[in-house]
Structure formats: structure tokens, C-alpha cells
Amino acid sequence: MEPRPKENPLPPLDELAEGFLAHLDGARGRAILTLRAYRDILLDAREFLRPSGRAWVEFGQADFRRYLYALTKKGHAKTHIRQHFSALRSFYRWLQKENKIAKNPLADMDLPKLEKKLPVFMTEAQVAALLEAPLKMERKKQCPHWVPSRDAALLETAYSAGLRVSELVGLNMEHINIETGVARVTGKGSKMRLCPIGKLALDALEKYWHESMHPMRGAVFLNKTRKGRLTTVAVEQLLKKYLAHCGIDQKITPHKLRHSFATHLLDRGADLRSVQEMLGHASLSTTQIYTHVSLERLQKSYRKAHPRAGMKEG
């Protein structure tokens, strides 16, 4: 395992909170950004609850209802509030497991309900234009000659395997088997899964490796100096550049390629369980949202094409 990169010093917490974060870092293998988010949430909650002078184990549901009200009054989005309480629930579950508390005060606490939004995705034509963009766009002279091939391979792989951007940049050479066309991917919670990679993506990868004189070890996708792993921020930036080149909405994120992957598979008849496995979803209900997207498109086509779709039976 590669050593974690050095980060800016993080503000200290109390012993119990630090113990929880150490548990996440060690036993659960959480990413650095996730650990930072959990730390920030615990600090924020502690700052609000601190005037009471009590410890974490002494807080009850009434205290957290006050905290919920305070976050709502500040105008925080429902997703933001739910993220806060999801982290706090995890913390208190850990305290319960460690026999620090008898009951989790957040276990049955009602939270603001989210509106169900259908995932945003790109059409097949838009994806095709995006995947062709790296090899068509003009470059500055100082740009390494192999970068277009790298970007083409990266976008092809993201769409071909339906990867999260963190999974994409986290790929190492030993994770990809060119012969079988399969990538071994580490997803959320350090769960491993096997993802098929299509021929076009495999061809693009081999072209990139050849042109860049890739060392064929370590990270699959290298930065321009070939001395380090491409970052998630760099992927977001290069995607915006290619979206602009294609005239596609620049609000599209790398994750929308994953949405497009799932939607296009279901549109073309893939079964839901297979798509669930490829996406690495723990629950089938998470994957089912893509069936709503496909059904909505099907209904639009039906209403538009069927001669009696808009008529009521008398």
C-alpha cells in the first residue's frame, strides 16, 4: 500500500473523537477527504454543544435536536444536514460498540427528507463526442505529445467501467488485466469488485502506455511530468475543457459519466443485478433509480409515438 501523502495539520479533538477517527482510518480504510469531512463535522458539533460543559457520552437526543434546528436556521441544505447526522450516528454507533454508551441518542431521530432527484446523464451521442474530443482538440506546443492519448484512455475507461473518479485515479497497473479485459477496483469501504473494460477502452489504454513510455508499474494515469498519479481535481478540470470543446453543459461532472454508463446499459437491456455489481452498489435500491430514468425516457417515446397514448378510454 502506498503511504498517505502529507497533509496540513488537522485541528485536535478529544480522546473519544480521535479514537473514532483512528478506527475509520485503520479498520475501515477511509479516504483522506472523508476523514477530513468527519473531523470537520465532529468539530462543528462539539463547538455547538461545548457550552453545556458535558462530554459526548452525556449528550441526549434533545441536544442533537437543538443542533439540527441550528443547522436548519443557518440555511444549510438538507443534504448537508443529513451528512452531518450520518457522521454523528456513525460516531455514536462506535461509542456504543466500545461500551461507552448504552443507547445511541441518534438512532431513531427524524431528519429532513430529501427530494428524490433522477440522476443527470449524457446521451450516447454526447458521450461519443466527449470521448473523441481529446484526440481532436488543438494543443499548446509545450503540451507533452502523449497527453491527448492519456486523456482519451482516461475518459474511455471511466465510461467503459462506470468508475467513480476516485476509483479511476486510484487504479494501478496491476489492477488491469488486458488479456481478460477486467479491472480490479477498490470502491467505497475498501470493497473490491471486478469491472469489465470494453475493447475501445483497452485499445486506448495500450496506445497511451505506448506513447507515454509508461513505466508499466504504479499508477495507471500519470500527470504531465510522469512522476505522479493524476488527481481527482485534474480529472475534473480536463473534463470541463473537453465539455467546452464539444459544446456540452460544463456542469457535467466525472460522476455523470458513471450515471451515463448505468443508464445506457439499462436502456440496452442489461439486467439490474449485473449493473448493481458493476457499479459496486451495496443495495439494489440504489441502482434502481436508473430504471426510473430509463422508464421515463420510454414513456416519453411512447406518448410521442403511440396514436392513442394521449387518449382516455371511454
Q: What is the domain tally?
A: 2
Task: Classify the helix fraction into a percent range.
Answer: 40-55%
Task: Give, in spatial order, the strands making up the sheet with the most strands.
Answer: 1-2-3
Tell me the strand percentage band: under 5%
Per DSSP, the total helix count is 12
Residue stretches low in confidence (pLDDT < 50, at least 5 long) are 1-7
Mean pLDDT rating: 87
Structural class: mainly alpha
N- to C-terminal distance: 69 Å
- Which architecture of the largest domain would the CATH scheme give at its second level? Orthogonal Bundle
CATH homologous superfamily annotation of the largest domain: Intergrase catalytic core
Q: How large, in whole angstroms, is the Cα Rg?
A: 23 Å
